[in-house]
Amino acid sequence: MPRSTVIGAALTSLWLMGGCVQSEPLAAEKREVLAAIAQQVVQPTLDQFENDAAALALAAQAWAEQATHGPAPAELQAARAAFATALVTWERAEVLQFGPAGQTGRVTEGASARDPIYAWPSLNPCQVDSRLVDRDYSADSLRSGLVTIKGLAAVERLLWSTDQNGCPPEAPINAMGTWAAMTETDRASARAQYAVTATALVSEHAAQLAAKWRDAFAEKLAQAGTPGNPFPTAHAALNEVFAGLFYLDGVAKDKKLGAPSGLTPDCTAASCPALVEAPASGLSQRALLENLDAARALLGGGFGSEGAGFDRLVKLRGAPQLGTDLFAKLAAARASVAALDGPIDAAVVSKLDAVHTAYFDLKAFTDLMKSQLVTTLALKLPEQGAGDND
Fold this sequence. Notes:
Blueprint (H helix, E strand, L loop, with lengths): L2 H15 L9 H41 L5 H21 L31 H10 L4 H6 L6 H10 L11 H4 L2 H4 L2 H39 L11 H11 L2 H12 L25 H17 L9 H7 L3 H19 L5 H7 L1 H26 L5 H4 L4
Helix pairs in contact: 1-2, 2-3, 2-9, 2-10, 3-6, 3-12, 6-9, 11-12, 11-16, 12-14, 13-14, 14-16, 15-16
């Protein structure tokens, strides 16, 4: 019998017990929502990323094997395609930073599993290029190093990097001439070898994260508030899932749209194309669309079909119009992002007003989320959202 069926059967018996498990308003219904999110949103995303990350590691290996003999354009293109597939899948997981993916000490059973996979906007091209020169990219070195030298952001640089490094003139690799001393073939081979190690670690972390959900955490989330569960109440678990939606506010809105388009203090010019996500691969728009789709899945309880999400609880609280409004505003934001019709760094140059429209459309959703949704479901604002009144 599939594990999800076993979990579902166990949950059904718990729900039938109703208040015997935990005395709190809508406890059984909240567990139903948590189970749907675990089984229909998180687990499929992490399982798919585990597969995509493994495929990326294999593609990097093929590129490296060929690059030792000279240029390998076909293998490099295949590795880039595998990267795009993996990153696009991971962007859904960016909104699911609760449980093992969440920060240790900040969420229940958080293991800070996200950053070794993808730490954007934390990145440092100079650190990556410096290690390239030193050939300091063994598994042990990357595993113990800063998140800025590993993960998907570093892999993107390796796959799309040119012969111009990301360091200032005074950096050792430039001041001492060690970068210039490397031939183009040497650099290409080193990038490929670095990518092999970095993608293998991403694949390793992806497998570990997916396994933690499969083996225990999905069931713990679904049974929140029952005896022996790490979540004292179902509502406590719901608050942590809700906190994941704030990625749309602090990162998707402010970092991915606001900063490049000059709407936040990160940018002091009319626009700052260099601040976009995934600039080398050109995946900034697709990444943001996946973030929005993941948020919709949390609201609806699944991808592609309605299940039991936050919208279910809103209706049970007698506020069906709020659910309708949340879906509508999120759809409007998605439409505005889709209308950019290409990478965001290009859009802030050629259609800045359209990027501003996307920003304010997304803000309309996050404002409603931070106000009426919080009030209706008596949710707790996470630390990163409590003081944000923009």
